[in-house]
Specification:
The chain is of the alpha+beta class and 154 residues long. It is 19% helix and 33% strand. The chain is globular and about 50 Å long. The chain starts with 23 loop residues before the first helix and ends in a 5-residue tail after the last helix. The mean pLDDT is 87.
Length: 154
Amino acid sequence: MKTEIQIERCTEPFCVIHAEEKTSGIMELAEKISMFNPDGRTVLLNGWDGDYCIQLKPSDIFRIFSQDKKVFVQIRKETLLFKMRLYEFEELAKKCGWTRFIRISNTDIVNFDNAEGLDMSLSGVIRVNLNNGEYAVVSRRFVSRIRGELCLRK
């Protein structure tokens, strides 16, 4: 594979992949590149199932939420303990360019890549339906912010 590095002024390093089509190999390469922080270190996300540590890719995550003063990560139908605070994950996501992780309440961050739709039938409330059959509710305080981030109109 041909590589090229361009030195220029920018706020943070970024990578562009030029390809004829979007293949699974290209998607996997992009995922691996996105796991590096600006210092060149690999960002590892770990979920805990009892004594077992399970490494997670950002694309595996459906949502991250806090409950009973603990933080959990939901992957498919499993919920694992997540030893990172919500604000720490938000900062990490911002540094790594994972823009599809959006906070929808004080206790919930959703990966909108794993959302299949928004139910806006309830007045003033948005329900995010996830691909795994679960859902999360946007708190009233965050509704206008979510509308702005997802470019939704009233």
